[in-house]
Amino acid sequence: MAAMFAVTLPSYGGPDVLTWAEVPDAVAGSGEVLIDVVAAGVNRADLLQRAGFYNPPPGTSPYPGMEVSGRIAAVGPGVNEWRVGDEVCALLAGGGYAERVAVPATQVLPIPYGVDVIEAAGLPEVACTVWSNLTRIAHMSHWQTLLVHGGGSGIGTFAIQYASSLGVRVFTTARGAKHEVLKALGADLAIDYTTQDFVAEAKAATNGRGVELILDIQGAPYLNRNIDALADGGHLVIIGLQGGRTGEIDLGAMLAKRVTVTATTLRSRPAADKASIIEGVLADVWPLIESRRIMPVTDRTMPMSKAAAAHEILAASEHIGKVLLVAPGYDQPAIGHAAVVMTDAARDLVADGTAADGAAADGAAAEDPQAKDAAAPPAAPAPTAPEPTTAADAAPEPQDPPTPPTAAPQDSASDVDTAASAVGVPAAPAEDEARLSGESDV
Ligand SMILES: NC(=O)c1ccc[n+]([C@@H]2O[C@H](COP(=O)([O-])OP(=O)(O)OC[C@H]3O[C@@H](n4cnc5c(N)ncnc54)[C@H](OP(=O)(O)O)[C@@H]3O)[C@@H](O)[C@H]2O)c1
């Protein structure tokens, strides 16, 4: 049987459970293409999957990795739009940390003109998440002000550039050491959430009106403050639950201001939804990248076999933008000029103490009682070693998040997808545990 190498998860736990191992080769099924992976993007959700808090949808490859770039190695039956050798990037439900991955042809995008094939690995997840939420759901418009929480994240660096390129006024929260880079990306106002009150700052900068739109990754601890920071008729879009999933909402405040709150996830959407988002991204976002109004922000690249080190970097928030894993046999990238500037700046800032401040970023989660509840999930059967798959993304995506195999604690801050609660497996290192305990991806 043909084989390939992939980053496997023999058990849940800290970064050291990530194991570079030989597994059966991926095979393109009907409607799929097989991609020879050049690079894979590392996403926060991968850390949750590794820790046992975010299992991939049923039928998906068990290996982490929700986005890749590479070259098409084979096309399955029924695929006419792609050819062997095409350079592409793709949105996956899993399986990207591997030498090859099979993906529905409808989740594949061309490499944008002018973008290095390695850097393109960091585009699909952020572009699809940001476009689907800000444009398709929230109908973001150029006259609005957008508050992006976590501006230094992969999501944040893209959202700042996307909104700014459309003429939207952008505010962002991040630790102070990252502000210089975020302003260079287009943020009009950067707020240090560790020392400043983002509600007061947002109101002060809008003559007391508040912002029309918020893209939130914190969840519960920011819920009522976000509503407070919104202008009348504003829209809060929650895409991450890093601070916790269960919060009490002041419906009176919502009512009085006529605000909308939306929470969404990309990974578990049906394949048809993903295909439609890919079409929108190709039409609306790719031209902005090709005209250099949006740059990939690559913090650093690392060999794919060093995925554990990449996870440690994300956990400590030592990065600005994307961390990419490069598959064996591919040289380190010739990164685009602007991205090199960003990368160097990011490294300098981290060297200035951003990493040392790591604990501060955990503030909300660590202080959230829910987070503490969730830090001691009930014992559950240890996960079995992942079954190798031959066709990532082959099965239809579930409409609703999968049901955990064991009941989560009443107030668990763990993810909607918490099979996890499940953690009868080796404990994650303290740093990760603190960070991940209150966190759940969506
Ligand atoms: N719903 C979806 O479909 C979807 C898709 C993709 C991603 N997401 C979510 O989007 C978020 C970002 O993902 P990513 O992979 O881009 O993450 P990432 O690069 O690891 O970034 C996480 C960021 O969180 C920031 N942060 C931590 N505590 C904060 C706080 N209290 N206030 C504001 N920012 C804070 C950190 O910034 P500092 O260093 O400044 O603390 C860091 O930049 C995650 O929650 C992820 O689950 C959701």
Furnish the topology, listing elements before pairings:
Blueprint: E1 3-8, E2 19-24, E3 32-42, H1 44-51, E4 67-75, E5 87-91, E6 100-104, E7 108-110, H2 124-137, E8 145-149, H3 154-165, E9 169-173, H4 179-185, E10 189-191, H5 198-204, E11 211-216, H6 223-229, E12 230-238, E13 240-241, H7 251-257, E14 260-263, H8 271-284, H9 286-290, E15 298-303, H10 307-315, E16 322-326, H11 337-354, H12 358-361, H13 363-367, H14 369-374, H15 430-437, E17 440-441
Parallel strand pairs: 8-9, 8-11, 9-10, 11-12, 12-14, 15-16
Antiparallel strand pairs: 1-2, 3-4, 3-6, 3-16, 4-5, 5-7, 13-17
Helix pairs in contact: 2-3, 2-8, 5-6
Look at the structure and give the mean pLDDT: 81
Q: Which molecules are bound besides the chains?
A: NADP nicotinamide-adenine-dinucleotide phosphate
Alpha plus pi helix count: 15
SS-based class: alpha/beta
Uncertain runs are: 334-343, 349-438
Instruction: Report, as a whole number of angstroms, the end-to-end distance.
Output: 36 Å
Proportion of beta-strand residues: 15-25%
Give the CATH level 1 class of the largest domain: Alpha Beta
